[in-house]
Amino acid sequence: MSRVMTKSLHLAAALLLTAWIAPAQAFDIQRVVSDGGVEAWLIEDHANPIIAMNFAFRGGAAMDPAEKGGLSNMAVSLMDEGAGDMDSQTFQGKLEDLGISLGYGAGDDSIYGHLKTVTDNRDTAFSMLALSLTKPRFDQDAIERIRSQILADLAHQQQDPQAIAGRALSKTLYPDHPYGRASEGVEASVKAISRDDLTAWPTHRLGRDRLIIGVVGDLTAAQLKPLLDSTFGGLPEKADPVAVPEVQANATGHVEVIRRQIPQSVVLFGEQGVKRTDPDWYAAYVMNYVLGGGGFSSRLMTEVRVKRGLAYGVSTGLSPYQHGALLDGGTATRNEKTAQSIALIRSEWQRMAEGGITPQELADAKTYLIGSYPLQMDSTASIASILVAIQMDNLGIDYLDRRAALIDKISAEDVQRVAKRLLDSKALTFVVVGNPAGLE
Amino acid sequence: MSFARRLAVLAGAVLLMAGPANAQMFNPETFTLKNGLQVVVIPNHRVPVVSHMLWYKVGSADEVAGKTGLAHMVEHMMFKGTKTVPAGAFSKIVAQNGGRDNAFTTADYTAFYQNVAVDKLELVMKLEADRMANLKLEDKDFQPERQVVIEERRMRIDNEPEALLEEQMTASLYQVAPYHHPVIGWRQEIEGYQLSDIVEFHKRWYAPNNAVLILSGDVTAAQVRPVVEKYYGAVPARPVPTRLREAEPDPVAARSVELRDEDVHQPSWNRAYLAPSYHQGDTTLAYPLQVLSEIVGGGNTSRLYKALVMDKKLAASADAGYGPQALGETSFDISVSPSPGVAMEQLVPAIEDELKKLADSGVTEQEVARAKQRLKISVSYAKDSFHTGPRVLGAALTTGETVADVEAWPSRIEAVTAAQVSAAAKAVLQDQRGVTGLLLPTRPGDATVSDENRAQRSMGSFGRELR
Fold first, then answer.
1. Predicted-complex ipTM score
2. Which of A233, A331, A369, B59 has the most CB atoms at less than 10 Å from its CB?
3. Which of A306, A324, A272, A375 is nearest to A109 (CA)?
């Protein structure tokens, strides 16, 4: 999956953390600090005998050296491929037999992981996670197998017009920055990664000073504390500093066409957005909903799909990074109408920049963005991931209680201001993969 | 995953959780209205929200010749207005009330859902019952929506070599059964629908006695029953046609389809074997085949993964899948991707060798015990998400199963023996029951297929959910 699209989808999940039915009524978030000083946020839920823990380390694939692009992705792909005295088959077999879900991922700005287990297997599950975090084996045969799977995945992306477009847009908007590179790397960089690179990786990157933990389910704070120490206590106290430069999107208004003999053109677009810490974040959040984030309630969906039947979908999203931000989106239209879809998107961009939103649009955006919040909380694992996201963005343990008010206070003038600031239809940059008519 | 597919993200994510491994032990409450509407309530009180889903017992396999894809087109048009709710207003009203809605169509069922705060349940129930009874459509809304569906077809199928191959395999696997044609329909037939086709299809199938209402979340049957009576109870029952799933004749020839495309960089080998479902064919094989699927392709310690990926290092991935929930016969599927640099000619004999071993020698007691344990432990997670129960029960109740069948899943899996799994492998993994699908890059010198030809030659899709 391409960087730009991944970010936006992640965002779609992470951002809908708005409170309407005050979640504090449903959940009591406890801040748990172990004897060894490991902190986690916990929501006890004893309705089902299940425990879910999500965690993340600040600093992600953007820290990978360019010539070893994909190092973080490859390292995390190997951390559940054998640890301690268990080789890959033994480790994987034990997880499968006990119904334990354990895995890792590498984002641009963080390394993340998850653990899910039934209560009966709790201690085994946490000890297997501890092993994989602190004693991953990086056996040579596992390295070659995972490398080959990553290369197969990269080859597969080359036949997916969405993936091609996503990679191209990232590269265009961030030509000289790690955010412009695919977090999985490229064929040459993946082939250049050595076992030494991999074995060194955890000690440099997985420090307790970078760690964020969210736990939900069938255990108490007293039960969690010793598990935090036994699981994370063996990690280095400090990791390498996160050295990723701040970056502005290189949005020039260019339309890049990548020719493929397919009947429908995939269109992605983007320009500079707002970071999560920006004072105008919530105003931009409301604006995006009206522009293209709100499905059938959005202006773009009305113009492109409903009125003209030009696409099955069109959407926009805020894609914040830790060191940059995009406002981006996408659609897919038959080749002979692609230019028309692009013109419509630019024109909606301009209309919003000039006129902002109506009182009705503002009210509808607020009721949705606030009211749909609890719909996210559909499983122990999804709630655990929300706890991690709140900590990652430094929003505070009372964030769920404050969220509704933060959105509710946004005025039409706030939206107008941020629309003027952000939306530049001439700078909005497009990548088209397909065989569009009338575009060079 | 694309931006354009964001609408389908929720449905897709939930589907992944709703495989047979999770189909168990939801302890639902049920009742039936006088007009025949079956109601299932799955209480889950973690957060004050509810998922309201209405499932109709109609899908693309219930269409008539020449109008393929009509069930899916009707699903789209359900958002285009009633006597009192204007076109396009349905989803906007749901969103204005902090809710999310969508719908999906498969070969056997069509479902509509809204996820809302529990105090908005009555509102969405009123809206959903209204479009069952009072759909009122206009050509000015139909024409652009048909274009939307054609764009959806281009996006999901015509632009994707893997989807094109899957369509070809499906059309080849089902020679007689109405699963032969794609859920989204043949392009030229989508272009031929009239508005009257939509209206008639809706009138024929969208009746309360042909639907199942599933509520999952912070509700109980006692709470919701009066509201269900009020809105859905007011819609009169009417006769609904019998659903036909013609049985396949005994397969006599192994079939193979090959799709070459200049954009293919990662080839794949796929096989679909005609297999019984819970409802048609030798249904006694349905539980053993689920255990077989787990042994053959469930995770990184499965037979195929171990043999092809770990030991012989020929493949990057190897998966098996079997979906027993279907009114007609279904398929047992295997999919393998070669490692970079490995030729298909090297890979295929190794796959065939493993499949032959399975059919000839069967499985061991130990393999079956492990597979059953894994399936059994998945029961523990079934009640975690409030989306899993409705997806599993909805698919079951629209494909001939009962609530009791779903609840009995763990004990029926437990009862499966190694001898039964071996017998199932022997019965199903036969060359003449299978269609092999190869996805390959274009050979140097091959003529390039033009856009339109490529769009035209695409066919077949089954098990795919479409909105």
1. 0.91
2. A331
3. A324
